[in-house]
Automatic annotation (TrEMBL):
Gene3D superfamilies: 3.40.1190.20. Keywords: ATP-binding, Kinase, Nucleotide-binding, Transferase. It comes from Natrinema pellirubrum (strain DSM 15624 / CIP 106293 / JCM 10476 / NCIMB 786 / 157). SUPFAM superfamilies: Ribokinase-like. This is PfkB domain protein. The keyword ATP-binding applies. GO terms for molecular function: ATP binding; fructokinase activity.
């Protein structure tokens, strides 16, 4: 088997509002597949690099819908688990007039909190080049231990490990717990892709995105830190230990007509992974990642707005 990408984490239903405004004022919603790692997996597939995806959904209509959606995007079902004793997570999305969103989760004891350690064995990990996970599954349930276990063993198997803290404050008892648990995860991570506020919540000091990224790299073992800045693009810092060499780069993003930012950060992550695996240097990879993320904001929904490689190439050519 060729060494490839394994993505791990939650798959859920995003309920997208019919209009912007507070949740209590919205009367109608549309069901959309979501979950940050699921979006990353599907985004990679849309870019022509379908990964294996380890996730867990409920044995309910929503779970069956998500299983079908993943299959439709050519995600293999090898590690897509169905939990007979739990429901599928739901998240209600609210938007402001600029398309920025907040989430309200229904996730107490749901299937994605019940991932179990050891489901991905060492022999499987030895065949993998890259493992990516996010912070939501660290927030509760057996999924916390399962995610930490996967990251530790992936690092031991010499996989490249990337991680998105994906702070959702509603899911954590306090910021200190978030910093402690995610700090355990970062002990096994090569590449951290985060927002500035997330890095600050993790205890890194810096008065700019670049300074925060540099602080993350200097503390280690992370060798590359990428800080996303929404419509303003992203910055990245890599140490001499990074395969692409020591660097500090930035890209201002792409001017597009934004409809919905849901999933844009996940699209960015997928773009960065795909570009770095293709052998791009850090500056080129951040440019590609920004193009993937920007293109994903031009339609509503998370997975439904993810671009193809051709659509990303068209945006890059128009820059």
């Amino acid at each position: 088997m060729s060494r490839d990408i394994l993505v791990a984490g939650e798959t859920l239903i995003d309920w997208v509002p019919e209009r912007s405004g507070p949740l209590e004022d919205v009367a109608g919603f549309e069901r959309r597949p979501g979950g940050a790692p699921a979006n990353v997996a599907v985004a990679l597939a849309r870019l022509g690099e379908p990964p294996l995806f380890w996730t867990r959904v409920g044995a309910d209509p929503f779970g069956r819908y998500l299983e079908r959606t993943l299959a439709d995007h050519e995600i293999p079902d090898r590690f897509v688990e169905r939990d007979p004793a739990a429901k599928t997570t739901l998240a209600f999305v609210t938007h402001d007039e600029g398309g920025e969103r907040e989430f309200t989760f229904y996730r107490d004891g749901t299937a994605d909190t019940r991932l179990e350690p050891g489901r991905i064995d060492d022999a499987t990990l030895s065949d993998w080049e890259w493992v990516h996970a996010g912070g939501v599954t660290l927030s509760s349930g057996s999924a916390r231990e399962a995610t930490l276990d996967l990251l530790e063993r992936a690092a031991a198997a010499d996989c490249t490990v990337s991680f998105d803290p994906n702070l959702r404050s509603e899911l954590w008892p306090d910021e200190e717990t978030f910093a402690t648990v995610v700090g355990e995860a970062l002990a096994h991570v090569d590449i951290c892709l985060a927002t500035g506020p997330e890095l600050a919540a993790l205890g890194y000091d810096g008065d700019s995105p670049t300074a925060l990224a540099r602080a993350a790299v200097e503390r280690g073992p992370v060798h590359t830190a990428v800080v996303t800045r929404g419509a303003a693009g992203a910055v990245a810092v890599a140490s001499a230990d990074a395969p692409w060499g020591e660097a500090a780069v930035e890209h201002p993003g792409f001017a597009v007509e934004t409809v919905d930012t849901t999933g844009a950060g996940d699209a960015f992550v997928a773009g960065a992974i795909a570009a770095l695996r293709d052998g791009d240097d850090l500056e080129a990879a951040i440019t590609v990642a920004n193009a993937v993320g920007a293109r994903a904001t031009t339609a509503a929904g998370g997975m439904t707005a993810l671009p193809t490689r051709a659509e990303v190439a068209a945006l890059l050519e128009a820059e």
